[in-house]
Amino acid sequence: VGNVVDVWEHLANEKETLVDLGSDQTSCHDPYQGGYYPVQLSYDEAQQCMKNDSTKFKELVHESIKRQIAAIDKLYERGMYFFDYGNVFLLTAKHAG
After folding, report:
1. What percentage of the chain carries pLDDT values higher than 70?
2. DSSP notation for 20-81
3. CB neighbours of residue 66 within 10 Å
4. Which residue in 93, 74, 70, 68 sits closest to 7, CA to CA?
5. Nearest CA among 95, 94, 83, 92 for reference residue 24
6. How many CA atoms lie within 13 A of 56 on its CB side?
7. What is the DSSP letter of 18?
8. Which of 32-36, 67-71, 86-90 has the lowest mean pLDDT?
9. What are the distances in angstroms from CA 5 to CA 10, 44, 79?
10. pTM for the predicted model, two decimal places
11. CA 48 to CA 91: how far, in whole Å?
12. Are 72 and 11 in contact (CB under 8 A)?
């Protein structure tokens, strides 16, 4: 069990693993209040950062989403079909830059 960013990056770096279909079930309706947990922090660290430094937490969410999109893009370039499940993930990625 781990952060989905770690999983996407692992799959993107595995040249022999073929991924035909991908989606994301992350609840990004409120990514800065616990809807998205950045890969750089443990759950407890994220909880503390959300509470004590919301600006830093938002920056970490954006960095994490950019990493996630980069990994998904690698897989897309190798033929994976990716779709947004209606959870605002791609819109949140757009806001992250």
Report:
1. 97
2. -EEEE---TTSIIIII---TTS-HHHHHHHHHH-HHHHHHHHHHHHHHHHHHHHHHHHTT-E
3. 14
4. 68
5. 83
6. 11
7. -
8. 86-90
9. 8, 17, 19
10. 0.87
11. 26
12. no
Q: Structure tokens of 96?
A: 């992250």
The C-alpha atoms of residue 84 and residue 97 are separated, in whole angstroms, by 17
- pLDDT at residue 41 above 80? yes
Of the candidates 43, 31, 33, the one whose C-alpha atom is nearest the C-alpha of residue 68 is 31
Architecture of domain 4-96: 3-Layer(aba) Sandwich (3.40)
**Spatial separation of the C-alpha atoms in residues 32 and 89, rounded to whole Å:** 13
Q: Any residues with CB less than 8 A from the CB of 20 and at least 6 apart, and which?
A: 79, 80, 81
Q: How many alpha carbons fall within 13 Å on the CB side of residue 47?
A: 3
Tokens of residue 51, six digits: 């509470």
